[in-house]
Design brief:
- With about 650 residues, this protein is mainly alpha-helical.
- Strand 2 and strand 3 form a beta hairpin.
- It is extended and about 135 Å long.
- About 0% of the residues have low confidence.
Length: about 650
C-alpha cells in the first residue's frame, strides 16, 4: 500500500529499475486510511507488482522502502488464502458490531445529557448567582453568621419572611433567620415602580431617558395616553390604524406562544411593544376619523354639508345657499371630523395646514405646562420651598404669558364666527394673523392695529403679559442663589460642640464648611437652567410643529401613492396595469407608510416626550437608581444577552 499522491512516481521508478520487465497494477482505496506507522489519515492506493528473479525482488524492496510503501506477502496456497479471507471478514463483522453498539451507547448517553443539560445549566447559573450575591454579605466572625443588607418593596416584606422560613425548613437549619426592617437606611432607596405586561413598555420608554429619583413623579402614567396620541396626530389614517391595531392584536392574542419562542430581533421588539403598538393603532383610527382619511380617501359618513352650484366656483352650505355667490358656511356643520368635500377643494392644503399647525401648538404648550405642574408636585413632596417660589412660579408665568396667551388666541379665533351677519357688516371684523399679533407684542408693545384686535382690552393685556415675562427671567435667575448664600452664612454662625468622648469628630467632614458651598457654582448652574428654560420655551414650542410636518407628509404620501398607482392605472382600463398598480400600491403602503413612516413618527413622539416634556421635571439631578431584584429570570436573560 502506497500513498495515493506518490503512485505515479512509484510506477516510473519501478519501470526504470526493471527496464520494463515488471508489471504494476494499482487500485485506489475508497476514503482515507489510517497509516499504521504515523497514525495519520491519508488517501492510499493498493498495488501489485509481478516480477521474476530474486535480484529484482531486492530492488523492489528498496524502492518500496524509499516510497514508504508497506508490503504484504501474497500467499500462493488457495486454501490458506480462503481461510485468511474468512478470518478477516469475521473480524470486520465483529468490529462493525462493536462500533454499532458503541454508537448506540454514545447516542443514549448524549440523549440523556441533552435532556438534562438545560436543567444543569440553570442549576449552575443559579449557584453562580447565589454565591455571587453571598460575596456581598458581611460575615460576623464572633457569632459565625452572615449579615445581608438589601432593599425590598414594602409590600413584599411578608413574602421575604415566608421565603426565609421555607428555606430554613428545607435546609433543616436549627437557627431561624432574622429579618430586620431599618427605619433609617442612611441612603436614598432605589426607585421601584410596579408594572404589568401593559405598563412595562411605557415605563421602559421613560427609563431609557433616565431613572427617576426615589418618590419622584413617574411620567409613564401620562405617557400611556400622550405617547400613542401624539403618534396618532402624525399618523392619522383609519386604514393604516386598522392594519397596525390588527398586527398588534395578533401579537397580543398569541403572546403566550410567542413568549416561549426564540424570535429574531425585529419581531422581538414588536412583541415587547405589542401593547403600545395596539394603542397607537387605535389612536390612529381616532385621528383618522378626525382627518376623515381612509387610505387617503375621504369617507362621506354623515353627508357633506357643502355643495357646488353654477353661480359660483366656490361651494356654499347646503342649508345656507340662497345666494350662492355669497359663499356662506353651512348652518349645521359636519358632525364629526372634517367634511369630505375639503379633500377635493383647491384650498384643502391651506386649510389642513392651518388647522394642524395650530393644533400642534395647542398640544405642545399643554404638554409642557403639564410638565411644569408636575415639577411643582415634586418640589412640594420633597419640601423644596425655594424651587416652588423661584423656579416653578416664574417658569409658569413666563410660559403662560407668552405661549399660553398664544393658545388662548388660537382657541378664541376658532370660537368666533367670522361669517356672522354682524361680522360681515363690520369692515374691521376680519380674522387676524396670529403670528403678526405675537410678533407685534414684542416688537411694538402698546401698539395694536385695529385689524389685529380680537377682544377689548387686548392691547393692555399684552403689555402686562410682556412685563410679566420679562420679570420672570430675573425671578428665576437671582433669588434662589442669593437665598442659598444667605442661609449658608447663617449656618456658619453655629459651631459644632466637641465632646470629650468624640474628639475625632473634629476631623470629619462638615457639610457647612466653606468648601462645601460654592456660590459661583450655584449661580452659574442657576443661570444655565434659566437660559435653557427661556430659550427652550421657544425652541420646544417650535419643536412641536413636527406634529404638523409629519402629519402633512403622511397625508401627502398617501395621496401620491393612491393617485399615481391606483387612480392613474384605473384610468387606462387595462386589467394588467390595474393589477400591477394595485400590487405596487400595497407594497408602498406597507413598506413606506406602515414601516418607515410609522418608525419616523414613533421616534419623533419619543423625542417630544424626552426633550420637550420630561426635561421640565424628570430626573433633574440624575441621582436615580433603579431597583434590580434578585430574579433568576433577569439573570438568565443577562446570561443569554
Amino acid at each position: 500500500v502506497v500513498a495515493k499522491d506518490r503512485v505515479a512516481a512509484f510506477e516510473r521508478v519501478v519501470f526504470r529499475a526493471s527496464r520494463g520487465n515488471c508489471f504494476v497494477k494499482v487500485s485506489d482505496v475508497e476514503g482515507k486510511v489510517v497509516d499504521p506507522g504515523t497514525g495519520v489519515e491519508e488517501e492510499k492506493a493498493v498495488f501489485v507488482v509481478f516480477f521474476s528473479g530474486e535480484g529484482m525482488k531486492g530492488k523492489l524492496d528498496k524502492i518500496c522502502a524509499a516510497f514508504g510503501a508497506r508490503q504484504y506477502p501474497l500467499v500462493e496456497d488457495s486454501s490458506v488464502k480462503n481461510r485468511l479471507v474468512s478470518e478477516a471478514s469475521s473480524r470486520i463483522r465483529d468490529l462493525e458490531v462493536i462500533l454499532a453498539n458503541t454508537d448506540e451507547q454514545f447516542y443514549e448517553v448524549f440523549a440523556d445529557v441533552d435532556q438534562n443539560l438545560p436543567a444543569w445549566t440553570e442549576m449552575v447559573m443559579r449557584e453562580k448567582a447565589i454565591f455571587h450575591t453571598m460575596n456581598h454579605f458581611n460575615y460576623d466572625t464572633s457569632h459565625k453568621l452572615y449579615i445581608a443588607e438589601g432593599w425590598c418593596p414594602a409590600n413584599k416584606v411578608d413574602a421575604v419572611r415566608t421565603a426565609l422560613e421555607a428555606g430554613r425548613r428545607r435546609s433543616n437549619a436549627q437557627v431561624q433567620s432574622i429579618l430586620e426592617e431599618r427605619s433609617d437606611p442612611g441612603e436614598i432607596p432605589p426607585t421601584y415602580f410596579r408594572t404589568n405586561r401593559f405598563t412595562q413598555v411605557f415605563n421602559d420608554i421613560v427609563e431609557s431617558y433616565g431613572v427617576a429619583e426615589y418618590h419622584e413623579a413617574n411620567p409613564a402614567v401620562f405617557t400611556v395616553v400622550s405617547f400613542p396620541f401624539l403618534f396618532a396626530v402624525m399618523f392619522g389614517d383609519i386604514g393604516h390604524g386598522i392594519i397596525m391595531a390588527l398586527f398588534a392584536f395578533m401579537l397580543i392574542y398569541k403572546e403566550k406562544e410567542l413568549g416561549k419562542t426564540k424570535l429574531n430581533e425585529m419581531v422581538a421588539n414588536c412583541y415587547q411593544g405589542r401593547y403600545i403598538i395596539f394603542l397607537m393603532g387605535l389612536f390612529s383610527i381616532f385621528t383618522g376619523f378626525i382627518y376623515n382619511e381612509f387610505f387617503a380617501i375621504p369617507l362621506d359618513l354623515f353627508g357633506s354639508r357643502w355643495k357646488y352650484t353654477a353661480a359660483s366656483t366656490m361651494a356654499c352650505g347646503i342649508d345656507n345657499c340662497e345666494n350662492p355667490a355669497a359663499v356662506l358656511n353651512p348652518l349645521n356643520p359636519y358632525p364629526f371630523g372634517f367634511d369630505p368635500i375639503w379633500k377635493s377643494s383647491q384650498s384643502a392644503l391651506l386649510f389642513f395646514n392651518s388647522y394642524k399647525m395650530k393644533l400642534s401648538i395647542v398640544l405642545g404648550v399643554t404638554q409642557m405646562v403639564t410638565g411644569i405642574i408636575i415639577s411643582y408636585k415634586n418640589a412640594r413632596y420633597f419640601r423644596h420651598k425655594l424651587d416652588i417660589l423661584y423656579v416653578f412660579i416664574p417658569q409658569m408665568i413666563f410660559m403662560l404669558s407668552i405661549f399660553g396667551y398664544l393658545v388662548f388666541l388660537i382657541i378664541l379665533k376658532w370660537c368666533i364666527d367670522w361669517d356672522s351677519p354682524a361680522c360681515r357688516a363690520d369692515p374691521v371684523c376680519l380674522a387676524p394673523d396670529l403670528k403678526s399679533i405675537l410678533i407685534g407684542m414684542f416688537m411694538s408693545p402698546g401698539s395694536l392695529p385695529a385689524e389685529l384686535t380680537l377682544f377689548p382690552g387686548q392691547n393692555a393685556l399684552q403689555v402686562v403679559l410682556l412685563l410679566m415675562a420679562v420679570v420672570a427671567v430675573p425671578w428665576m435667575l437671582l433669588p434662589k442663589p442669593l437665598i442659598l448664600k444667605s442661609q449658608h452664612a447663617k449656618r456658619l454662625q453655629y459651631k459644632k460642640i466637641s465632646d470629650s468622648d468624640a474628639e475625632t469628630a473634629q476631623d470629619e467632614h462638615d457639610p457647612f464648611e466653606d468648601d462645601a458651598f460654592d456660590f459661583s457654582e450655584i449661580f452659574v448652574n442657576q443661570a444655565i437652567h434659566t437660559i435653557e428654560f427661556v430659550l427652550g420655551a421657544v425652541s420646544n414650542t417650535a419643536s412641536y410643529l413636527r406634529l404638523w410636518a409629519l402629519s402633512l407628509a403622511h397625508s401627502q404620501l398617501s395621496d401620491v401613492f393612491l393617485e399615481k398607482l391606483v387612480f392613474m392605472t384605473t384610468e387606462t382600463g387595462s386589467t394588467v396595469a390595474m393589477m400591477i398598480g394595485f400590487i405596487l400600491w400595497v407594497c408602498m403602503t406597507v413598506g413606506v407608510l406602515m414601516l418607515m413612516e410609522s418608525l419616523s413618527a414613533f421616534l419623533h413622539a419619543l423625542r417630544l416626550h424626552w426633550v420637550e416634556f420630561q426635561n421640565k421635571f424628570y430626573n433633574l439631578h440624575g441621582t436615580g437608581r433603579k431597583f434590580v431584584p434578585f430574579d433568576y429570570k433577569l439573570i438568565a436573560l443577562a446570561e443569554e444577552g
